[in-house]
C-alpha cells in the first residue's frame, strides 16, 4: 500500500511546473510583441527618412533657382582641413618655402607659399622673407599656382595632396612657385566670389612683377583655378599688360557648362529642366569664369593639359578651348593641347605624376619670350 501511494503521488501534476510554463509562454509572447513593435518603429522611421530625402531632392532644384546665391557653397567648397597650420610649410616637407600674407584689398589677407627652385634648397634654410623676395630677381621663371575649389594651398578638404605634387615638380624643374589661397580659402580672410578671386590673382601677379625684374611670370591654373587664370590674363590685357604664359590643367569652358559635371549636380543631370534650374542660376549669381570667351581674347602663349579620363571636367572641354584659342590667333604655334591617355588613370588630379610632364613644361617655358 505504501508503495502504491508513492506511485500515485508521482503521477500527480506539479502546479509549479504549470505556472512556470504559463509564465514562459507569456514572456515569449511579450518578447514577440516588443520585437514586432520595434520592427514597426524602424519601418516607420525608414519611411520618414526616405520621404524627407525625396522632398529635399525635389526642393533643392527650385531653391537653387529662387536663391542662386546658395550656389557659391558647392562652387567654392572652401572648407579647410581641420587642424591644418599653413604658416609652417616645412610641416608639409616644403623646407625651401616661406609663408607670407598679402592684402589684395582692404580687409582681405591672402595666405601664400613661396617655394624657391630646388637648386636653392640648402641656401634657403633659415632665411627670412627678404631673402626669398630677392631670389625672384635671379632670373628663374616664376609660376603663380592657382588651385582648384576646395581645401587650401596644401591639399583638398579630403586630404588629397596633388597641389604639393605640382609645387615639388615645378621647383625641381627650376621654377619659383607662389601658391596662394584665394579669399575665404585656407587661412585667407574674406568671402569668395568670382570678382574677388580674380582680384586676388591680379594683386599677386603685380606683387611678383614688382620684385622679379625681367624673370618670366606664368599662371598655372587647375580646375577652378583655370577660370581664375584666364579671367586675370584678360584683366591684365585690358590694363595693357600681357602675362608671359598661361598653363591650364583640367580646364572647363565656363562654369555653367562645367557645373553640369560637378559632383553636386550628379543626381540631377536627368532632372527635367536641369539647365533652367541649375545652370542658368550660376550665371545670375555671377559665377561664370568664361574661359571660352577669355581664350578668344588672350594673346599669351597657352598650354592646355588634360587627362582623357577626367571624371569631373570632360576632355571635350579642353578640345573646345584649344580650338577657340587656335582659331582666334594668327599663329597656332603658341597654343598647345597635351592630352594624357585615359589608360594612365590620372583622372582630374593626377597629371603631375606623369614622368613626361617636367620636359613638357620646360619646353613650353623655353619657347616664351622674356
Summary keywords:
alpha/beta, 12 helices, eight-stranded mixed beta sheet, elongated, 43% helix, 370 residues
- Cα distance, first to last residue? 129 Å
Radius of gyration: 31 Å
Give the overall average pLDDT: 84
**Looking at the structure, what is the overall shape?**
elongated
- Give, in order, the helices and strands: HHHEEHEHEHEHEHHHEHEH
Proportion of residues in β-strands = 5-15%
Q: Order of strands across the widest beta sheet?
A: 1-2-4-3-5-6-7-8
Largest sheet: 8 strands, mixed
Number of strands: 8
What is the overall number of helices?
Answer: 12
Q: pLDDT under 50 segments (min length 5)?
A: 1-7
Structural class of the secondary elements? alpha/beta
Report the helical percentage.
40-55%
